Amino acid sequence: MSKKLTLLFMLLGLVRISVAQQVVSGKLTDSTGQPVLYATASLLRSADSALVRSALTGEDGLYHLENIGPGKYLLRLNSIGYKAKYTATFELAPDIPLKMLDTYILYENSNPLSEIVVRGQRSLFKQRADGTVVNVENSLMSKGSSVLEILERSPGVLIDHQNNGIMLNGKNGVMVMLNGKPMRMALDQIVNMLGGMSANDIAKVELLTSPSSAYEAEGSAGLINIVTKKSVLEGTNGSVSITAGYGYGEKATGSISLNHKAGKTNLYGSYNYSRDQAYSDFHAIGTEQEPLLGGLASSDFLSTDKLLLNNHQAGAGLDLKLNNSLTIGGSINYNASNTTIHTVNRGEYFIEPANIYNLNASINGVNRWRNISSGIYAEQQFKKGDKLSLNIDYINYKNDYPIDVQSTFLDQNGNQAGSNDTLFSPLSKGLSNTHILIWSPKIDYTRQLGAKISFTAGLKGTQTRTTSRSAIQSLVDGEYVSRPSAMNDIMMKEQIGAVYSSIKVLLISNTEMVAGLRYEYSDTRMDDPSAARNIADRRLGVWFPNFQVSTKIDTDTEWFLSYSKRISRPSYNDLASYITYNGPGSVNTGNPLLKPTVTNNLRLGFDNHGYAFSVLLSRDDHPIARHQIVYTADKLQMAVSPQNLIFQNNLTFQATIPLPITRWWTMDYNLNAGWHRFKLDYTAQSVSKTYFSSSLNTSNVFKLPAQFSLELSGYYNSAFYNGSKKVDGYGVLNAGIKKAFKGNGGTIQLSLLDMLQTGTVTSYFGALTAEAFDLNSHVDFHPESSKYLIFKLSYTRAFGSATGSTSKRKLKNASDEIERILR
Q1: Which fold has domain 235-822?
Q2: Residue-wise pLDDT tens digits, 548-584
Q3: Which of 48, 336, 555, 729 gets the highest tally of CB atoms within 10 A of its CB?
């Protein structure tokens, strides 16, 4: 490893290029000499006043316009509440890389526009070179929703509610992040957490299929980065939101966020509580061989889940600017979640020639999560745009999930099937405890190498320690006992070290290239302390190159090309060889022989005024498909476990189409359509499959009189495969209506979820190839919304120093100008 790291640093040291580039800088103040924040500096061609570049002033009133070619220009300087100012014409020559303009003064408008607000708004969907951005705060449906519901409405994202999984663009292997920090848990646990998190404070969701080398290489399908809102306004301000709703049972959410910014200090905090009484069920019919029951069985199985979720989230943070160049800060977040679960399973099994068995089981448990995540940072700015930053993160996850099971498995004569052993005992209980500790330091350095080149390098280390203990205990002869195969005691230690670099180069006046290289070395060891045995011991070092090239034809038209290599390492749940009880003939287990997935992605795209089209070509080696059907070692039971496919090739087309029909009606569409080919060999015979799949996300927003607005949104996912399991297509239509009150009266909104109750998900085993025990099954999974119409009523109101008349203009100035520049 040391030789590889030395080689990387030698490569980084060779990057010393200096190329001339034109940069325009200056400063804006008001008549009192105070900096004007969030003013717009627009660079115009002197010949025709065409817009070339725009930038916002920072807290110091400074603006910087980069990537400018030689020519004659002038500046338009404006800010709401001030008179616009135009500079004299100036010229940029190839031999003048930096143009420093005088400090200009903006004078307040004596007749401000207090009644007219021109408000820019980002499109709901936005394609970039590294992926797609969903501007969540632009959607009415975000209020009162969970973060998981927001993801489910995002382009290319598919949520498997039955098995708690997430797919992106038809692929497994997704890394989920919150504000750029990975959520290092098993995917099913992440899904449970996101289902309890409120989306009221979510600004956007980034779906990154080709992220830069600064991001971790984990996530073969890509990264899903959930970004929360953060205030940039002076003074004390915040918002409150309450939601009440009903479906199968009550829904309620209450949240408050506060932000205080004074000079060089910024304090922020938030609290959210959510309660959700939910329902789901699945109905399975099929045939399979049942060695424990004596032959071929036809089965009819119904499982219902009734849940009551109570979730608390609290967070606080501090940003402190010690001087003009050094900023420090930190944050801490706490989450406590209790989910009471009541599951009832009923099944009928007809065994040829004439035996009938009936299963009745009642399962009760409480799933408790306690999570603390914290971090500190320091950022030092140097001259010429150089920057050094240090981050240290600490995460502590705790989960406790005990269950009690009462069951009967009787034949047609009322006799207990099997014997009174651990497989057929009428009384059982489950114990499950998981504890995850994570430390992650990171250091980054950015240097400006001349006017056209910037260089970034960094180091990151992550140490994860996971302990997981679980067991199924059955009452046998008056005592609770466990089969050895139904006990689990696992300790996993994983260390990942990464070194990375990237270089951004302005090749010509309108073409920019970003190239990066990342090396990650992982050391993963998983042991069973109770049995004194090793389950997995793996060391892996991989290079991950990436690059992006973008060419701007004009300010609204861009071509982009990107390439990235990524990896998905099996989680501890995937690798652990423990067994949990499904029924006498079926168990859940891990697979210690799993290999990591390595993916190569190549993406070409075009964007013109927000109308974007792209093609993504990817190759996955050893992709992981979860919840597949195989034999247990003794071939007496069916094992549901993750398995490696041999490969999967994907060619995905994505179209983002914003359609402003009229001033009062806008539509946003995002289409993902893909060709897929995979091969697998864990079934009785190896099999290859080629298929086509697509997904469509749409939003229609209508601006109505009296400050009302209406949104109709929905999504449709066509049929697809997850390993050997086939899933039929399904879709959902949602609606929301919002009323904005005048002044600072806030907004009230009514949302209806899955209005047509079409969210049923149907899947099949045995449709592609012969499964273990000749299983042929048809499963209908019904989420709550497919059986109960869910409605939610939400009220949101902002408050604080930014709501006064003068401050309100500054608030509108900041938000409107930032929105317009970032579109």
Answers
A1: Maltoporin; Chain A (2.40.170)
A2: 999 988 777 889 999 999 999 888 778 776 556 566 6
A3: 336
